């Protein structure tokens, strides 16, 4: 007896297998992913699809969810940066004939295993410059577009992380959600100008240029995929937020987006050319090469081995190794100074942090709650700040603010203020003079492990995307999901995050410092953590 299955059930089974493998197994879709299938294969049912859209590089086939949402995954937005294109600026994608099967995420950019990064478990390849689209319809309705840039310390992560699935956000907001991969680590941020000359003057910001290339592809194509190229919001968290903040200053990105959301990441991780050159020199020593030719000849595995050695040498400070470089070209000057000077004039900004950012890193090092605050301060990059007088001043202040806390908890609070809260405040201050600017503070505490992690770094992403997982426990506040999604969508649509389920949320300025606190009961607070801010302002220039 022959079993019969509906085409929808077959499609669901097929996509489940593809997703579990982590890369496309479709005919004509190799590991490099540039070869499309033939139209005849689609027409004859050898490859199933439910929607086809036209792009400037060729037609793409996506799938349709039961509720009508259209999903396109793994579309190339640049040529594979492999072979002679390694360490080169992104090149326009090669057009294809036939129909490209945009049915599975592209490969993850090469990265070493990390227990907190699901992406590090999937198939990896340097040919990663792919993008993904969730759209309510393939029409000309010109919906607002929200472009997500993933985080991961500029070393880890990928747009295929289930946390970043844009489906629920697209559905609730009737918006087009767009995500992308970019080069990371040594392959995305090595400043090779000292060894490669003028030809490699932009090499420290290849990842930034990848992001610009993806935005350019979007600008050229999104109108046929249900979106409005004149209403694009970029948003990101952690290193993704650092990328968003950096893009505010990049000349090549101007006009490609109109609003920006920076979640828990600003300019603290941008690097000077001197620092970037030192990282490059050490990486090349560990890789055993002396020039760009040698770097291009290295196997992908050898690149990762050298990078892993560098990460181990850096220890907890590994997040400082890679990131955008203040090179005087792609990133022309200190980004905070550039924003304060009006380089992103009229780009509306929504920014903020979680209350307990640094508690995320307990996942990496269980001893963090027990490390004395004075030792925590030694991990900060601005070592000149931490002479004995300044160190004693900041520790004394936090002890006074947290009289019942252990020294390790005080150190984590100091790290939250230094690495996250103050950079976001400085960014908001800089942009508030030039555009509508809004500040938030996420304060809901995760109940897992008896509240050990509090409102830790990246926790708010689960609410923004409505992709709730074990990190929020067994009874998460669903209403908070709706309130946050509606705020993010309202901002994307109008530049103003206010909506009916929030108290009045004024724009941010130095006088009131209006801040929306997101919790089961949302409240508007003026200048939360004022005493901490004043102490930091006295210490940090």
Structure explained in plain terms:
With 541 residues, the protein is of the alpha/beta class. It folds into two domains: 320 residues, Rossmann fold (3-Layer(aba) Sandwich), CATH 3.40.50.1820; 187 residues, Alpha/Beta hydrolase fold, catalytic domain (Rossmann fold, 3-Layer(aba) Sandwich), CATH 3.40.50. The protein has 18 helices and 15 strands. The strands form two sheets. Strands 1, 2, 3, 4, 5, 6, 7, 8, 9, 12, 13, 14 and 15 form a 13-stranded mixed beta sheet that branches. Strands 10-11 form a two-stranded parallel ribbon. α13 packs across α14. The protein is globular and about 65 Å long. The N terminus is likely disordered.
The CATH topology of the largest domain is Rossmann fold
For the record, what is the CATH homologous superfamily label of the largest domain?
A: Alpha/Beta hydrolase fold, catalytic domain
Point out poorly predicted stretches: 1-35, 44-48
Q: Outline, from the CA principal axes?
A: globular
End-to-end C-alpha gap: 78 Å
């Amino acid at each position: 007896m022959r079993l019969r299955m509906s085409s929808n059930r077959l499609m669901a089974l097929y996509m489940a297998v593809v997703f579990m493998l982590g890369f496309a197994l479709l005919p004509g879709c190799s590991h490099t992913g540039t070869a499309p299938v033939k139209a005849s294969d689609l027409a004859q049912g050898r490859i199933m699809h439910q929607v086809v859209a036209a792009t400037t590089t060729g037609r793409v086939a996506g799938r349709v969810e039961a509720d009508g949402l259209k999903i396109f995954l793994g579309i190339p937005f640049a040529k594979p940066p492999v072979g002679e294109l390694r360490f080169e600026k992104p090149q326009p994608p090669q057009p294809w004939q036939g129909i490209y099967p945009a049915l599975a995420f592209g490969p993850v950019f090469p990265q070493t295993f990390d227990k907190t990064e699901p992406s590090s478990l999937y198939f990896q390849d340097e040919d990663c410059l792919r993008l993904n689209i969730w759209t309510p319809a393939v029409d000309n309705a010109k919906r607002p577009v929200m472009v997500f840039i993933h985080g991961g310390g500029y070393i880890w992560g990928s747009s295929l992380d289930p946390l970043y699935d844009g489906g629920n956000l697209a559905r609730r907001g009737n918006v087009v959600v767009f995500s992308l991969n970019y080069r990371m680590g040594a392959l995305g941020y090595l400043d090779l100008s000292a060894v490669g000359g003028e030809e490699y003057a932009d090499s420290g910001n290849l990842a930034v240029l990848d992001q610009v290339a993806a935005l350019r592809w979007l600008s050229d194509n999104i109108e046929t995929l249900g979106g409005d190229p004149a209403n694009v919001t970029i948003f990101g968290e952690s290193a993704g937020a650092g990328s968003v903040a950096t893009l505010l200053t990049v000349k090549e990105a101007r006009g490609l987006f109109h609003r920006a959301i920076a979640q828990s990441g600003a300019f603290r991780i941008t690097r000077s050319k001197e620092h970037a050159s030192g990282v490059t020199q050490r990486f090349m020593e560990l890789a055993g090469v002396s020039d760009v030719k040698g770097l291009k000849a290295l196997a992908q595995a050898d690149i990762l081995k050298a990078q892993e050695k560098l990460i181990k040498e850096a220890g907890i400070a590994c997040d400082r190794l890679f990131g955008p470089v203040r090179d005087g070209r792609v990133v022309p000057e200190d980004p905070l100074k550039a924003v304060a000077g009006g380089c992103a004039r009229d780009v509306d900004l929504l920014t903020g942090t979680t209350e307990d950012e640094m508690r995320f890193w307990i996942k990496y090092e269980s001893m963090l709650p027990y490390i004395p605050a004075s030792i925590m301060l030694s991990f900060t990059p601005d070592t000149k700040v931490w002479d004995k007088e300044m160190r004693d001043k900041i520790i004394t202040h936090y002890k006074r603010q947290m009289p019942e806390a252990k020294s390790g908890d005080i150190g984590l609070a100091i790290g939250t203020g230094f690495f996250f809260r103050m950079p976001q405040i400085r960014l908001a201050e800089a942009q508030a003079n030039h555009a509508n600017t809004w500040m938030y503070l996420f304060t809901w505490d995760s109940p897992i492990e008896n509240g050990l992690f509090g409102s830790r770094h990246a926790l708010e992403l689960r609410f923004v995307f409505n992709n709730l997982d074990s990190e929020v426990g067994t009874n998460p506040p669903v209403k908070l999901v709706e309130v946050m999604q509606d705020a993010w969508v309202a901002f994307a649509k109008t530049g103003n995050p206010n909506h009916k389920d929030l108290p009045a949320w004024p724009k941010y300025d130095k006088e009131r410092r209006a801040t929306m606190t997101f919790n089961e009961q949302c409240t508007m607070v003026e200048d939360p953590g004022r005493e901490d801010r004043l102490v930091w302002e006295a210490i940090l220039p």
